[in-house]
Amino acid sequence: xxxxxxxxxKTLESEVEEDAGTARLVARAKKEIAGxxxxxxxxxxxxxxxxxxxxxxxxxxxxxxxxxxxxxxxxQITQNYLSDLENGKRKGPFELHRKIAEFLxxxxxxxxxxxxxxxxxxxxxxxxxxRSVAEMKRSRGR
Length: 142
Hints:
This protein has about 140 residues and is mainly alpha-helical. Helix content is about 65%, strand content about 0%. It starts with a helix and ends with a helix.
């Protein structure tokens, strides 16, 4: 087979693979839309892509105030804590981000990048807990 023909076939192969990948993405999107997955407006997606805090962006997309989100029955945090999360002053645990995502009806994947473990979210609490356990062990003579 001549080299030029081989190169032409390789190019066609890569185009077919790309087309198949695109077809899979379109089929997945259609399935998600049919399943009720949220569609986000372009400006919301752009804000997320440019690194704005996803909690703030998605809260505003849903037309909620900080107080409304913070006091939602499934979330139940203070408005100050929510403000700190949105401003990057504090980090929230995965479970809280999961609750927020569920309340906002968005995939958890949108909030996961800013979530941390419970230990990272509240290191003082875990330090106190560790200290308390150590004191109990000492008092019991272990």
